């Protein structure tokens, strides 16, 4: 089995990265940054997002695991003091795979014949630097509402504890293949009306955002990446066909992670 270790880049994470690499090499495992079977991310959930994006092109062949050097992470759920135990598990055991859904997004732009396709592990958002975002929301091809406000967030179940939660969205168990749309400060008055509540769509549904003015530029975030897009005519969101694969060596139920992150850490 080939492995890769990625680090947040701080002293503590780099040190743990070196220890993991040395232990795994001592167990005769091969190291490969280009085609690893297992990626071990050392840092926090942010570091984990970077690591996953680096291997989006080979999700079927790669499993992920996270060691957290900050506070408890959702994706990074192994403690630094458990590293020896983890390494022995990796070297000696066949790991179990747990799959979570991802978000797929296609962006169409004026004068571009083909859309660009992106994947997100947490969420994608659409905002503007100046002024309100004004766009029509369609679900399965039917007009749903005209949104006017700061922006919209479309998240995965595992991303529902991140930005989505801060926007008042629901926490969704990642066993559910779904996407969630949450509003950022929508304008609601006699002229403009939005639903006002988060919407949860099943995997066979399609949501589309169609900016009213095709000449405006938008700030689009995809997990930790922020990019400016101009001449956007339409953005389509679905649950991706691809899924992320986590290497699981012990049970750590999602609801326990929610409890330990947001209520109190029982470990
Ligand atoms: P960041 O602004 O440096 O960190 C955002 C925070 O979100 C970090 O504390 C991170 O944990 C945590 N986080 C990431 N994924 C999570 C998840 N699935 N569940 C619970 N917490 C999670 O940005 P970043 O490190 O580059 O991460 C990008 C993410 O930040 C985005 O995907 C978005 O979800 C989130 N974000 C949240 C808000 C908000 O809550 N108002 C605003 C903007 C962006 P670690 O400390 O372990 O890395």
Automatic annotation (TrEMBL):
Location of this chain's protein in the cell: Cytoplasm
Matches recorded under HAMAP family: NAD_kinase
GO cellular component: cytoplasm
Primary site of residence: cytoplasm
Species the sequence originates in: Amphibacillus marinus
Cofactor(s) it depends on: a divalent metal cation
Active site positions, chain numbering: 45 (proton acceptor)
GO BP terms, alphabetized: NAD+ metabolic process; NADP+ biosynthetic process
Domain of life: Bacteria
Protein's UniProt name: NAD kinase
